[in-house]
Amino acid sequence: MLVALPSAGRSRTPVHFACALIASVAFAVSFSATDAQAGTPMISVGHQFSCGVTVAGEGLCWWGQAGDGQGNVPLGKTWSSIAAGFTHSCGVTTSGEGFCWGNLYSGEGNIPSGKTWSAITAGYDHSCGVTTSGEGFCWGNNLAGRNDVPTEKTWSVITAGGFHSCGVTTSGEGLCWGNYSQAGQMDVPSGKTWASINAGWTFSCGVTTSGEGLCWGDNGNSNDLGQTTVPTGKTWSTITAGDSYACGVTTSGQGLCWGANQGGQTTPPSGKTWSAISAGGSHACGLTTSGEGLCWGGDGSTPPDYEEETPGSPADGRLDVPVGKWAGAPVVVETTAAPRLLAAVALTRNPRTTVTSLTLRAWADKSHGANTVTKVEYWNHTGQPKNTRTPNGGYVRAYSPTITLRPGQVAFWVRVKDSKGTWSSWYRTRFSSTGFLGW
Q: Which portions of the sequence form the region Disordered (predicted)?
């Protein structure tokens, strides 16, 4: 899902979710808009990775399935939007060029040529886009007709979901197509004029021009509030459909999420006034009206074969927004399942030896309400976790594991446990026989 961070000297109006959906992805969904531009930063949450556009128009992607290339953002471009999908990403430059990258085995990257794009969205294994003239296209895997965009329509937005797609025309008509024998996500409520419709994994959500919020399709089988059960008595600015949950922002800035909550993704940080919230696979992100960027959920259980794809990126993990890239207030990454927890690593022996001892320092950000660190867990390339309890408790603790180098780069993952028994997300570093390469 994409969320926009206000830039310095600009009104704090998000270009995603609240004002205009630029590109949001939940598990395999993404949403689009038509008014993105460089200077309006945004963040897009995919299945197990995230992408963003900085205030300078730089495109970034981080985390993701190793080897799939979700982080291979085309270089030398100034971006207006980037959408993170299931295992691929798509984006549009400020000049209207369209690009897709990552896992493109089903034709997700076969963008129609000769078009100037306002937005392109990344779904499960298909992509959709709208041109500046209102033409709508979908491409990639056409199982169940998800690429069969209704003809003779002028589109304002088309969203690529799991096995279906949805769109809104310039006249406010809402349409969905392709369903793979799934229940009801194409049954757009009749008699409505739509501001936005978002295709989720097996359900859809939308907001009418009067602020009514509706979701339809599969209502899930969790013990939580069903994903299509929109909280009542609210006037909505946006609603986004995720994997098995949904999130929305009311016109008063209240942020709400509902549906499956296995990773804490339906519990936004409290005490915030939101301009945008985007639902992802098992985590969500949002922007407050004061310019904070926050992510939550993703219970820290991501296996280590999901890794940062962009060398030198300052962040690892689903909840870790790159710092120093976004205008406005500093980005703060939080999780309601565990406090903000960071880690650092430094070599303590000759990095050219075959066995290297690392000093691992893990600390909790007390200023954001973190609890003390009680345990550090790390993974090396053998794939087995090693646990150690930090002595005496505290906000900063060190541990010195020993790992064996192998040819090429070696990945090293770490997470920490707090005094309430909750884990942080994984943080990953890389080093080689020539030395430490950084986080």
A: 298-319
Instruction: Number of helices (H) and strands (E) in the chain: give both, helices first.
Output: 0, 31
Three-class secondary structure of residue 166 per DSSP: strand
* Mean pLDDT per 10-residue segment, the chain (439 residues): 32 22 26 38 74 77 60 85 87 95 92 96 93 97 93 93 93 91 82 93 92 89 70 93 89 94 84 84 76 66 34 39 44 30 34 46 51 61 44 47 48 61 57 43
User: How would you class 210 by CB atoms within 10 Å of its CB: exposed for 0-12, middle for 13-18, buried for 19 or more?
Assistant: exposed
16 contacts: CB under 8 Å, gap ≥ 6? 1, 2, 3, 4, 22, 23, 24, 31, 33, 36, 42, 81, 276, 278
CATH fold of the domain at 341-438:
Immunoglobulin-like (2.60.40)
Q: Domain segments of the chain: what residues?
A: 2-297, 341-438
Domains 2-297 and 341-438 share a fold: no
Distances (CA, A) of 158 to 121, 185, 197, 426: 8, 15, 8, 34
Biggest CA pair distance of the chain: 71
**Backbone angle region of 393, left / alpha / beta, with phi > 0 → left and psi within -120 to 50 → alpha:** left
Distance, CA of 175 to CA of 409 (rounded, Å)? 48
Cα angle: 315, vertex 318, 324; to 5 degrees: 35
How far is it, in rounded angstroms, from Cα 30 to Cα 412?
Answer: 31
Residues 363/395, Cβ–Cβ less than 8 Å? yes
Q: How many CB atoms lie within 10 A of CB 184?
A: 15
Q: How many CA atoms lie within 13 A of 123 on its CB side?
A: 32
Which pTM does this prediction carry? Answer: 0.65
The residue written with tokens 């565990």 in the block is 338
Edge-to-edge strand order for the sheet containing 42-45?
2-4, 42-45, 49-53, 59-63
Strands lying side by side in the sheet with 283-288: 274-279, 283-288, 293-297
Q: CB 11: neighbour CB atoms within 10 A? A: 6
